[in-house]
From TrEMBL:
UniProt keyword terms in alphabetical order: Glutamine amidotransferase, Transferase
Entry superkingdom: Bacteria
Secretion signal span: none
GO CC list: cytosol
Organism classification: Bacteria, Bacillati, Bacillota, Bacilli, Bacillales
A biological-process GO annotation: polyamine catabolic process
GO MF assignments: gamma-glutamyl-gamma-aminobutyrate hydrolase activity; transferase activity
Name of the protein: Putative glutamine amidotransferase
Transmembrane intervals: none
Keyword Membrane: no
């Protein structure tokens, strides 16, 4: 049974358009899922229904996150924010996690997932932390530019089949302190968090890179999406048998 997977959107305010980079939906389709695009809303009833109807959630990349959501004032280096999107994704992420449904969170999505669950983040790595490697690569989006070290025994290691791989990188924000009940599952050579995941058997996985841009060429990226969709298939099966 192909699972229904909610996919979050960016917004171009000047044109009043919702946008999605096609690699996100293509990667879900290629892995066997059915993507449903989720417009921004402040209506809690709509968000509740979204969470009920979806078998999994893909939190995509995009603009910066409003620092007031984790108790900070804006710092020099903070870029454009999407307040309505932030608040919707936080509420939706919490409902999906509370319902035990899979969540895959990419780049900005990794950061918003951390905030939703009680963690925090750097507003701007390059002004708030020293000794960094380049996290905003100058190569093509489908080129893995730096290495990561993956925690042994983690869900991510099971997916990867290795504890050292290379990923692409397009971010100036990053998770700082992860939520309680979660584990750092990968770091960059400079110690920046590249992935975190739920303790136990739940599929809740935040990745700081963009596997959706890599899946056409990269087995690791394809395995990430396939593992996510397989977890969503189990949710779909439970929903079907519960009717």
């Amino acid at each position: 049974m192909k699972p229904a997977i909610g996919v979050t959107l960016s917004k171009r305010r000047k044109e009043n358009l919702f946008t999605l980079k096609r690699d996100n939906s293509d990667a879900v389709l290629e892995a066997g899922g059915v993507p449903f695009l989720l417009p921004h809303t402040r209506d809690p009833e709509v968000i509740r229904r979204m969470a009920e109807q979806m078998d999994g959630l893909l939190l995509t990349g995009g603009d910066d996150i409003d620092p007031s959501l984790f108790g900070e004032e804006p710092q020099i280096g903070l870029g454009e924010v999407e307040p309505e999107r932030d608040r919707m994704e936080i509420a939706l992420s919490r409902k999906m996690v509370e319902a035990g449904k899979p969540v895959l969170a990419l780049c900005r999505g990794c950061q918003i997932l951390s905030i939703a669950l009680g963690g925090d983040m750097y507003q701007d790595l390059f002004s708030q932390r020293e000794g960094l490697i380049q996290h905003v690569q100058r190569g093509p989006r489908d080129y893995p530019s730096h290495s990561i070290t993956i925690q042994k025994g983690s869900l991510l290691e099971k997916i990867a089949g290795s504890n050292r791989l290379r990923v692409n990188s397009f971010h100036h924000q990053a998770v700082r302190n992860i939520p309680e009940g979660y584990t750092v599952s990968a770091t960059a050579p400079d110690g920046v968090v590249e992935a975190f995941e739920a303790d136990g058997e739940r599929f809740v996985l935040g990745l700081q890179w963009h596997p959706e841009n890599l899946y056409r060429k990269d087995d690791f990226a394809r395995r990430i999406f396939r593992a996510f969709v397989e977890a969503c298939e189990q949710t779909a099966l439970k929903r079907k048998t519960a009717r």
